[in-house]
Design goal:
The complex is a heterodimer of chains A (544) and B (391).
Chain A lengths: L26 H6 L4 H29 L10 H36 L7 H19 L26 H29 L12 H32 L13 H18 L2 H15 L6 H14 L15 H29 L8 H24 L1 H7 L3 H31 L5 H27 L14 H30 L46
Chain B lengths: L1 H19 L28 H34 L15 H29 L7 E8 L2 E8 L6 E4 L3 H8 L18 E4 L4 E7 L4 E5 L4 E5 L5 E5 L5 E6 L12 E7 L1 H18 L9 H20 L16 H4 L3 H10 L14 H12 L12 H7 L2
Parallel strand pairs in B: 1-5, 4-10
Antiparallel strand pairs in B: 1-2, 2-3, 5-8, 6-7, 9-10
Helix pairs in contact in B: 2-3, 6-9, 9-10
The chains are: A mainly alpha (544), B alpha+beta (391).
């Protein structure tokens, strides 16, 4: 029995003492009317994984087309639709909702709160995403096909798109509204509902990173909404914000978009830092090194993320002082990011480490994410960027930070917390297979893209010169192995534990793990911390 | 520098063993001088000082990053190997040190400043487009490049450069059995410039954003509609240098290459003279009256060069592209309707404006579409009628 699929699993055979007086709904009503943070968290995670598979299929179609030079499978129109929708679906449908899912499940448990602050708004912000996701995923069937202007939606190309552009803009608005509601919920929960004794500087790192992320989201989602609304009015209501024929400025779109887009990058990585900062100490059996500096580093990254946006735009022809400013500011971000990596390594140093799957993914995260960090530093140098901007080098770079960064941390988080969610242990052997398979296939896919980019292969190309053929073939083969690994993950790891198959999990399955989530039974009861718990001085244990 | 490039070639040949395993990918393709190399691991061979500087900077960064990488992950993997529970290692208790934190904030900060210094120098050099010997405007259009020689020797020369049509067809056919070195990089009219001269490229666009990029020159500049931007290069050696559009610009984004032919000063002067003679000869008088056959013959060429990418050779269009065969606008007795569509574009630029074409070309292509496929209107349009409709 598991908490994920059955809210009363933990008291099965104990119905006489069912203390669930609310009469929580069963069947489909339980999910549609869900107000419980754990159920909503589960919904978010399943939704995100579904979108991840849809986005993954689009990616595999791209890689299949690029396996050989020449057009074999799709035409250039459809190819551009695939790259665009792969980006939009992965960013807005997979990574962001998945982290919100983690926040829903873990934030109340980690701060000793009974639920999220606004339970019904929580429900609403989840269910809002469904129509948006349907609009995005079905845009391929709209006359004229899906939007094909790239996930960055650069004007004036977006002004040439068919009707699906409008539905995608609408979908992004809805997803943005959902994100803002989710963020407000998370901020209010964290600031108001911590158990007595848990001061801000005693909060778990995951909670800290999400608090900062939520502020970033509130700051920048409206900026995206503004940019796409202007695109919409340019398309239909005769405005010319971005249309040069009427005095508009296409580059202004890029400034607005990246003012959203760069903090967005950190929205997708800060919670990952948080997850990894929980897991490394647990498996090193040693406290996180430099907790305070981790908090400050995260905050500095968040603040700096607002003043680096135009490093995406070196090729637009900025004045020399503009280029220099954005180059320096961007390079500066490597300092707090470096501090985080050093702190993780120092946490591992002289620990007593074991390498269960969560730790493997966390260490894999540090290793591969850091490579993405280095390529980021290289991209930040404006002169080098003249070579690699808009080439496969950039594609390699952001997949190193988004796949090996965000996605690996989520896998780590799943393996780490799923015993608490489901009440059973995942199969360790299968977890390890998943890890090694994923990390090898990942590198086979994306490492050769660095070479392609340096050699000058532009991104978003449906066909390419023959010289690029071999590395493209290699990347395509890697991509399919990577994709299969994730299907394996779902059917052989996630599905069994959701159905409660596996060794029963104890309350604290990881002997080095600290935090309030390990103070409740596994699986976590439907309602936890209904009365504020009394905490010890470190705010990691409940004392009566 | 060259040693490093040799080194990367050696590494590349090592990788050859792995990649030939993908036997199907074993095309007999060679490195393209001035373009990409086969299984190239590094930036293309530089042909300007700026590109050399970029290659140097990239090595500089790679070396620093590799050293840091080895240092950090040396420590991490040492720890992973030694500080294991299975080896009986007991966890230490330290978890804070202000001194260490300050050290590893300050040291990276100094390293970053050290990196920024040479980069700053390069940025300033790249951005200095003053005192050019030759100024050329590159106009991105869906999906071709227009070149206008604005200032310097060859002033007044103007032409359009598109991908070799045969290669576009090869691509559609899946590039089966194709093993050519300049696949998707061959153009009909390369941009010709003299060696050793400072060439300033002004970019702009007539529709969406494109990017004028030539890796071996180390330049990349977006071509933005309604705005002009500039960049520059001074090629150090003669030869063809290849680039491609590097900003997503619609469906044919992968099919608008750039070929810069760098020639000696004498050859350049010769080329300029030839071009100017051709230009004088081909100037059509918009008031000349053409016969129907002449118009249709010329129109079919204009159609093949400009229209059939979207409207297809059979005039049926496809997807969002409207058909011309049997279209009301084409069949309409009021010829000005079709003329206006060609001059001004339609559907928010999905059908772009073609006013950059000459009156004669426009008249010819309209006459062609009005009398081709199942369209049998017997109408012809004279260049003067197009001229009359221009504002």
């Amino acid at each position: 029995m598991s908490a994920v699929l059955d809210p009363h699993g933990h008291i099965a055979g104990d119905h006489d003492h069912d203390h669930d007086h609310h009469g929580a709904p069963h069947g489909w009503r339980r999910w549609v009317f869900a107000t419980n943070h754990k159920d909503i968290g589960t919904l978010y995670l399943l939704f995100a994984f579904t979108m991840f598979l849809i986005g993954g299929v689009l990616a595999l179609l791209i890689r299949a087309e690029l396996f050989k030079p020449g057009l074999q499978i799709v035409n250039p129109e459809l190819f551009n639709q695939l790259t665009t929708m792969h980006g939009l679906i992965m960013v807005f449908g997979a990574i962001m909702p998945a982290f919100v899912g983690f926040a829903n499940w873990m934030v109340p448990l980690q701060i000793g709160a009974s639920d999220m602050a606004f339970a019904r708004m929580n429900n609403f912000s989840f269910w809002l995403m469904i129509p948006a996701a349907i609009m995005l995923a079905t845009s391929f069937f709209v006359p004229g096909g899906a939007p094909s202007g790239g996930w960055t939606l650069y004007a004036p190309l977006t002004l040439q798109m068919g009707p699906s552009m409008d539905s995608s803009i609408f979908a992004l608005h809805i997803l943005g509204a959902s994100s803002i509601m989710g963020s407000i919920n998370i901020i209010v929960t964290i600031l108001n509902m911590r158990a007595p004794g848990m001061t801000l500087m005693k909060m778990p790192m995951f909670v800290w990173t999400w608090l900062i992320t939520a502020y970033l989201l509130i700051a920048v989602m409206p900026v995206l909404a503004g940019a796409i609304t202007m695109t919409l009015t340019d398309r239909h209501f005769g405005t010319t914000f971005f249309n040069p024929a009427g005095g508009g400025d296409p580059v202004m779109f890029q400034h607005i978009f990246w003012f959203f887009g760069h903090p967005e990058v950190y929205i997708m990585i800060l919670p990952a830092f948080g997850i990894v900062s929980q897991i490394i100490p647990a498996f090193a059996r040693k406290k996180l090194f430099g907790y305070a500096s981790m908090v400050y580093a995260t905050s500095s990254i968040a603040i700096l993320s607002f003043i680096v946006w135009a490093h995406h735009m070196y090729a637009t022809g900025m004045p020399v002082t503009g280029q220099l400013f954005f180059m320096y500011a961007t390079m500066l971000i490597s300092v707090p990011t470096g501090v985080k990596v050093f702190n993780w390594v120092a946490t591992m140093w002289k620990g007593s480490m074991t390498f269960e799957t969560p730790m493997l993914f966390a260490v894999g995260f540090i290793f591969v994410f850091t490579m993405g960090g280095f390529t980021g530093l290289i991209c930040s140098m404006a002169p080098i960027d003249m070579q690699i901007q808009d080439t496969y080098y950039v594609v390699a770079h952001f997949h190193y930070v988004l796949v090996a960064g965000s996605l690996f941390s989520m896998f780590a988080g799943f393996y780490y917390w799923s015993p608490k969610w489901t009440g059973v242990m995942y199969n360790e052997t299968r977890g390890k297979i998943h890890f090694w398979w994923t990390i090898i296939a990942f590198n086979v896919t994306f490492f050769p893209m660095h070479f392609l980019g340096l050699a000058g292969m532009p991104r978003r190309y449906a066909d390419y010169p023959m010289q690029f053929a071999d590395f493209n073939a290699l990347a395509s083969v890697g991509a399919f192995f990577f994709g299969i690994a994730q299907v394996y993950f779902f059917f052989f790891v996630v599905f069994p534990v959701m159905r409660g198959h596996g060794e029963k999990a104890v309350q604290r399955p990881w002997d080095g793990a600290e935090g309030l989530e390990w103070e409740v039974p596994s699986p976590a009861p439907f309602h936890t911390f209904e009365n504020p718990p009394k905490l010890d001085v470190t705010a990691t244990k409940v004392i009566g | 520098m060259n040693k490093m490039i040799d080194l990367s070639k050696k590494l590349a040949s090592g990788l050859l063993f792995i990649s030939t395993w993908f036997a199907s990918a074993a095309w007999a393709v060679n490195d393209l001088p001035g373009g990409p190399g086969v299984r190239e691991l590094n930036i293309q061979m530089p042909a300007t000082k700026i590109a050399e500087e970029q290659v140097w900077l990239h090595w500089f960064m790679m070396i620093i990053c590799t050293v840091i990488f080895i240092a950090v992950f040396g420590v991490m993997f040492y720890s992973i190997l030694k500080h294991r529970k299975s080896l009986g290692h007991k966890a230490a208790n330290f978890h804070d040190s202000v001194k260490v934190e300050i050290a590893w904030t300050i040291i990276p900060f100094i390293i970053v400043i050290f990196m920024a210094l040479p980069a700053t120098k390069a940025v300033v050099a790249e951005k200095d487009t003053s005192n050019a010997d030759l100024t050329i405007k590159a106009t991105g259009q869906q999906w071709k490049w227009g070149y206008d020689y604005l200032k310097g020797e060859g002033e007044g020369i103007s032409f359009v450069s598109t991908l070799d049509n045969e290669q576009r067809i090869m691509s559609n056919n899946g590039a089966k059995g194709v093993d050519i070195d300049d696949y998707l990089l061959k153009v009909d009219n390369p941009l010709v410039v003299p060696v050793g001269k400072k060439v300033r490229i002004i970019t702009t666009s007539t529709d969406v954003i494109h990017a004028f990029a030539v890796p071996s020159f180390g330049i990349k500049q977006d071509a933005i509609p309604g705005f002009v931007r500039d960049t520059w290069f001074r090629a150090e050696r003669v030869g063809d240098f290849h680039g491609q559009c590097q900003e997503l610009c619609g469906k044919e984004h992968a099919y608008m290459p750039i070929d810069v032919k760098v020639v000696s000063q004498e050859d350049y002067t010769k080329w300029v003279n030839e071009q100017q003679k051709l230009l004088a000869a081909s100037k059509d008088d918009p008031n000349k009256v053409w016969s129907k056959e002449e118009l249709i013959a010329r129109g079919s060429k204009v159609y093949a060069a400009n229209c059939q990418v979207c409207h297809q050779p059979n005039g049926k269009g496809g997807g969002p592209v409207k058909p011309l065969d049997g279209a009301a606008v084409v069949l309409n007795a009021d010829k000005s309707k079709q003329i206006m569509v060609l001059l001004n574009g339609q559907n928010n630029g999905a059908m772009p404006s073609w006013k950059a074409l000459s009156d004669t070309d426009l008249a010819a292509v309209i006459s062609f579409t009005k009398n081709n496929w199942s369209n049998k209107t017997e109408q012809i349009v004279q260049p003067s009628e197009v001229l009359a409709n221009r504002k």
